[in-house]
């Protein structure tokens, strides 16, 4: 019975593996581990690529946004600078216009005395001329030359000479005033030409400012759209 019990208990024992089996199992285990490692690496390879693609896309998007922002800032700065330049040019034109107006007023103010003098001289010359005509009429045309009456030739000569002297004085004064007025008219003509040129420049400046406003509105619209 002891032998039978030993025979029944023998199959339940778990004998230790032989050295040959240990070597085979140890030889097979690296292959299994390598296959498992390759499988894990194959599963992990696509993940870093996708991650880097996402990072690159985000970086490109950020750079594009920064580029658009920088371009908008540069465009706004350029428009602002252009507006300031146009404003400075307009101020210069206005200053030049004021200077020319001041010159015109100065010239006219200097000539106002001559114009006032001309009005007073004109009255004096008219009075002198009318008196001369009356004197000549009384001395020559109204003389009683009939019925043997005689006229004093020397008196008539003196009267005519005095009238001629007065006429020459009047003529020289008129020529002097006409020369002064001619110079004044030339200055006024030149100033009118300058004023016309300035008016043309002001129109051009107004057109440039309207164009600048249109460009600025277009830039703001594009900036808001972006």
UniProtKB/TrEMBL annotation:
Gene Ontology biological-process entries: spindle assembly
TM ranges: none
Single GO cellular component term: nuclear microtubule
One Pfam match: QWRF
One GO MF term attached to the UniProt entry: microtubule binding
Disordered as annotated region, ranges: 1-50
Matching PANTHER family: AUGMIN FAMILY MEMBER, EXPRESSED PROTEIN
Family the entry assigns: Belongs to the QWRF family.
Protein name listed in UniProt: Uncharacterized protein
Organism of derivation: Miscanthus lutarioriparius
Organism placement in taxonomy: Eukaryota, Viridiplantae, Streptophyta, Embryophyta, Tracheophyta
